[in-house]
Two-component system, chemotaxis family, response regulator CheY
Amino acid sequence: MKILVVDDSKAMRMIVLRTLRQAGFGDHETKEAADGKEGLDLVHQWAPDVIISDWNMPNMNGLEFLQALKGEGFAGLFGFVTTEGSPKMRDTAMEEGASFLITKPFTAQSFQTELGPTLNG
């Protein structure tokens, strides 16, 4: 499977990729994008199966990114990894079509719980 990690922080993208490896998903192909606009371009070029996105980013935030993808008929798994995990934010994410919302700080176990059913299938 192809996994796209979208976050404006290079350090956070590296942490997400490391956590994916620790969770047992290191054999999947990965790419990175620095914001939703770059992520959208990569989706068009590369067609990932799973997108893990930050919420707060410049140019196009995670929610706008998700909305653009859904408007184009993206059928893959999309979820957020963000510092803000309020019930309202979680509800908004799910209403817009996100499959999961993992709050920072996260663990390999939280990735296994949220992504395991898809990535191990």
